[in-house]
Write a structure and sequence with these properties.
The complex is a heterodimer of chains A (454) and B (536). Chain A has 454 residues and is of the alpha/beta class. Helix content of chain A is 29%, strand content 12%. Chain A has helices at residues 16-21, 38-41, 77-80, 101-104, 123-132, 145-153, 212-225, 227-231, 236-252, 267-273, 277-290, 309-333, 403-414, and strands at 53-58, 87-88, 95-96, 110-116, 166-169, 189-190, 295-299, 340-345, 349-350, 366-367, 371-376, 384-386, 388-389, 396-398, 421-422, 430-431. In chain A, helix 11 (277-290) runs parallel beside helix 12. Classes of the chains: A alpha/beta (454), B mainly alpha (536). The interface between A and B is large, with 86 and 88 residues.
């Protein structure tokens, strides 16, 4: 038999075979053994962490904090425009925007973070900071929160499920690479399609046009005709393709796909969420959480309202209100809210002072100095407000919350150890938590959200 | 497993499964078979002599030379990132010229797609993208990529190309090479030096066992790179700034620039240190420059560097064959840094033309070159291939910066200049984000999501069912045998075997489906074979 010289540097060698051996569904893909093995990195803090899943409602473009969760009715017309009558919620002392009456009935379930700040008003940089909990710069491009959560909570033995662990509805978040320096298998699976359409075509899983019978016929024909794969089965990569196909079909023809079948819900339930894309996306998120998917992002665009701001709010906020209220209610009713974190917000807020002038005519611009987030469930206490802005909502005057504060708090609820490391392709030591690396300046943190963490 | 049972197994599986396209011939049992593998190994050029010597010393008999069908597809994909057209495949396969492989290599190296495909690879390494985390800006990214493509098209000597990048001054829009100094998250001498060392010397400065003072000496060459804005929106001038602040060592003394293998150099205050550095780097005597370049080309074509990884040529990371590396290095230098010459040498070698099918003795050879290394097609190549087969387009766009960029539908993915312009499919198949210059940033490991997408996505389904070229072919042909031939040539660049023809004919003539539907299914199935998505 062949004897081989071993290259000295390959002592910790991962053979190509073992490297490619275990194929697994991932945002997706193949689990590397050895160097990239998640087990080497996925140390969990507790055996029973509070939270199991995260639903991130990513309102990209930047929703206006004054018209939603941090109203300033006394600031006058130049700040409030027509939305100057905030409403009481079911928690005494907490008021929210007047276009959110259904959410007002559920304030006991969520906390409002009114002290959010990072100071950057460019989409790319702000999105990067909020998604990764890091400032840009240096050599590393960090992974987003979803990729990190799917690393720690989306792989066996923690997660044994055919569904991908990190799902974006319906498109990727874009604007930066979600997996950062980590391998692209930590990227999200994007559903594509429109959950408000019948049928809801999920790219690669639920076909609009190919019936189940035809799927089976095709599959059988493919097996027969693919002489290459049969002849090359000793090659590790060919084996990976083969096993990926098997897993793909167990999804296409199997039980897991039912997670996406919204028509299994009653008409009443579907109506409760609103018959629109965002409403049905929230309903889908609920179904995925029921099946244990650890991280779901609803990529909810359209908040970059430089112009036609109030017209857009009149159209968007009611749909947002209805869907999120339904989601909170249903998760609570099904006792899933305790283990599901909901994060709701964008990369920044919008200028509190309205731009009446040409060419905006009543728009709001980007605003990174102060903005709001709604968080709920998974160990976050409801009926709370954290942080405070000044009388015009332009400056955080109490309890600032930076993106890394929020991210580290979420990690703690998920049970991700603060010393847990991320797999870096060149083997650099990088921690999941931005605090562990000591890169966060004490001036730029308000600390973990201990006041609202159970 | 004993040698005997092993051989029996091989013979049985050969008999059962191999179509002529990947026919490897029966292995002879025992040492005689191993010896025969060595003896029958063709020596097309010097590379093969050196590789054979190495394989013998490692007692790893090489596989057979691949078939014409396999070679044709492999060469197109590796050299120009493009599938052969059905007609091109037919012509090549029917050609009786014994020199037809060498001639094909010359034709491919001369095609315009060569420059397109390799400017994509260089675009990855140079991180050509409009925005985030580095900020080139769209028109600068376009200009930069066009410059790289132009140099590849003209086969500019590699030393001149690198020199141009390293010594460039001027505007990011009008002197595109200056963008080399702009594609960084942070523009510090340290990061510039790290990147230069990685790209052009194959060294990771921080992991190469160098002392801190050696590293600082290298960084000191990059302390006088100046950046200034102009009146034009997002224009930036890169210039030699004599007042650039020197680096200080731990005693607070200014660090003199020092090449890695030499003494610190005094550079006159009016001389741009980058020029001194480029002189040193691109000198034929530089022990890293040519070596890392040929090692990269080898990696690109064979899927593994002679030193692996190709950007980690630290001492202690021994080459698979030092002689082979030295030979290619010498060839590059004596041929005036003509990189195409290196491509040509490698492509013409029997080593490159070996079958991917392992034999009885070399299946475990994971570091070496006893058989061709199977890899998944690049993201861009897969989607381009499917578009070519079906006669459809893809839409690519960039959301950064605003206003959004949209490309016309006939855009080839390998020809996207700006890494910020992408599509969900490219992302899914692992198009690199161009955040770093590591070769490993390109991830071509197959995943369930990718496979699922090819099997069952509306986007692929639509291409097959509505694709102009594919449906034309299906509608035109009355004669089922030639329809199958055309489908196979178009998708797999070969004719079907008898067994395949039989299976496909049965499917095509099954009255349970309309013929068009069956023909589309056959095309769908061929696109989903391992043979299609893998380089082999």
């Amino acid at each position: 038999m062949a004897k081989k010289k071993k290259n000295s540097y390959l002592k910790k060698k991962i053979t190509r075979k073992s490297f490619l051996k275990a194929a697994l569904y991932g945002a997706g893909g193949v689990i590397f053994t050895g160097l990239f093995d998640s087990k080497a990195f996925g140390q969990l803090l507790e055996s029973k962490p509070r939270a199991r899943s995260v639903i991130q409602i990513w309102m990209w473009g930047g929703p206006p904090h004054l018209d939603t969760f941090d109203p300033k009715p006394d600031a006058g017309k130049d700040y409030c425009g027509p939305l100057n009558r905030p409403i009481d919620t079911n928690v005494p002392g907490i008021k929210i925007g007047q276009l959110l009456p259904l959410l007002a009935k559920q304030a006991d379930k969520y906390a409002l973070l009114r002290g959010m700040t990072h100071g950057n008003s460019g989409h790319e940089t702000a999105a990067y900071m909020v998604q990764t909990g890091r400032k840009p710069g240096g050599e590393l491009v960090y992974p987003g929160m979803g990729a990190i959560v799917s690393l720690f909570k989306g792989q066996p033995p923690v997660y044994k499920n055919d569904l991908p662990p990190y799902i974006t509805v319906t498109t990727p978040q874009g604007r930066f690479s979600e997996c950062g320096f980590m391998a692209s298998k930590y990227k999200p699976f994007s559903t594509g399609g429109d959950p408000n359409r019948e049928p809801f075509a999920v790219e690669g899983i639920v076909s609009e046009t190919v019936s189940e019978d035809r799927q089976k016929t095709r599959k059988e024909f493919l097996k027969g005709i693919d002489s290459f794969t049969r002849g090359m089965m000793e090659d590790p990569l060919v084996k990976v393709i083969e096993s990926c196909q098997e897993q793909a079909y167990s999804m296409i023809l199997g039980e897991a796909r039912r997670g996406f079948l919204l028509n299994e819900e009653t008409k009443e339930t579907r109506d409760l969420y609103g018959r629109n894309k965002f409403g049905q996306s929230c309903l889908l998120a609920k179904r995925l959480v029921e099946r244990g998917v650890p991280y779901i992002t609803i990529n909810y665009g359209g908040w970059d309202t430089h112009k036609r701001h109030f017209e857009t709010m009149n159209q968007k906020l009611p749909e947002f209100d209805k869907a999120l209220a339904a989601l909170l209610q249903e998760l609570a009713d099904k006792k899933l809210l305790d283990s599901t974190i909901i994060l709701c917000g964008g990369e920044f807020g919008r200028t509190p002072r309205i731009l009446w002038e040409d060419p905006w005519y009543g728009g709001r611009s980007h605003f990174g100095k102060a903005f709001s987030y709604l968080v709920a469930g998974g160990g976050f206490k409801g009926g709370q407000v954290v942080g405070k802005t000044d009388s015009t909502g332009e400056n955080v005057i109490e309890r600032p919350i930076y993106p890394w504060d929020l991210m580290a708090s979420v990690f703690e609820l998920l049970g991700i150890d603060k010393n847990a490391k991320l797999p870096h392709p060149q083997g650099l030591t990088v921690y999941a938590s931005p605090f562990t690396e000591g890169v966060v300046s004490p001036k730029e943190t308000g600390g973990l959200l201990k006041e609202i963490m159970l | 497993m004993s040698l005997k049972t092993c051989c029996i197994k091989v013979i049985i599986t050969s008999a059962l499964f191999y179509g002529p396209a990947f026919l490897i011939g029966a292995d002879m049992p025992g040492q005689a078979g191993a010896q025969k593998s060595f003896d029958s190994f063709k020596k097309n050029n010097k590379i093969d002599e050196l590789v054979l010597r190495e394989l013998k010393s490692r007692d790893t008999p090489p596989s057979e030379t691949c078939s014409d069908e396999v070679f044709l597809r492999r060469a197109y994909i590796d050299v120009i990132g493009t599938l052969p057209l059905a007609q091109e495949a037919k012509t090549f396969l029917g050609d009786k010229d014994p020199k037809k492989r060498a001639k094909l290599i010359d034709r491919l190296l001369a095609r315009s797609e060569f420059a397109v495909y390799w400017s994509m690879k260089w675009g990855d390494l140079l991180r050509i993208k409009a925005e985030f985390p580095s900020n080139l800006w769209p028109n600068a990214a376009q200009a930069y990529s066009r410059m790289v493509k132009d140099r590849l098209q003209n086969n500019t000597p590699y030393d001149k190309f690198v020199r141009e990048l390293l010594t460039a001054s001027g505007s990011n829009f009008r002197d595109p090479a200056v963008n080399f100094y702009r594609a960084f998250q942070e523009r510090t001498p340290r990061l510039l030096a790290e990147n230069v060392a990685q790209l052009f010397m194959g060294l990771r400065l921080n992991e190469s066992g160098l002392s801190e003072s050696e590293i600082l000496g290298l960084c000191a060459f990059f302390t006088k790179v100046g950046y200034k804005p102009t009146e034009e929106w997002k224009e930036e001038i890169i210039y030699f700034n004599p007042d650039g602040k020197p680096l200080l060592d731990k005693d607070g003394k200014p660090v003199l620039p020092a090449p890695l293998n030499g003494k610190p150099v005094e550079i006159s205050p009016v001389t741009d240190p980058r020029v001194v550095f480029a002189d040193w780097l691109t000198s034929p005597k530089n022990p890293w420059f040519a070596k890392s370049a040929v090692n990269r080309v080898w990696y690109w074509l064979l899927g593994r560097g002679i030193v692996h990884e190709p950007d980690d040529m630290k001492p202690g990371n021994a080459p698979w064959s030092g002689e082979l590396l030295a030979y290619l290095e010498k060839e590059l230098v004596t041929q005036n840094f003509d990189l195409k010459h290196i491509y040509r040498l490698i492509l013409n070698s029997n080593t490159y033309q070996l079958s991917a099918k392992s034999n009885d003795w070399n299946a475990e050879d994971e570091d070496g070159f006893s058989h061709y290394r199977i890899r998944r097609l690049d993201a861009e190549v897969i989607i381009d291939a499917i578009c070519q087969i079906t006669g459809t387009g893809e839409s690519y766009q960039s959301a950064i910066p605003e206003p959004f960029t949209f490309l016309p539908n006939n855009q080839r993915a390998i020809d996207i200049a700006d890494g910020s312009i992408t599509s969900p499919i490219l992302e899914m198949f692992g198009k690199p984000p161009r955040n770093t210059s590591f070769e490993s940033e390109r991830n071509s490991i197959p995943s369930v999501t990718q496979v699922q997408h090819l099997l069952n996505s509306s986007s692929i389904e639509r291409k097959i069912v509505y694709g102009r070229l594919l449906q034309q072919l299906i509608n035109q042909r009355k004669d089922t045998t030639s329809l199958l031939d055309e489908l196979y040539l178009k998708i797999l660049s070969r004719f079907p075997t008898q067994e395949e023809q039989k299976l496909a004919l049965e499917y095509l003539t099954d009255t349970k489906r309309r013929t068009n539907e069956s023909a589309s299914d056959i095309a769908w199935a061929l696109i989903n074979t391992g043979e299609f998505i893998l380089k082999h």
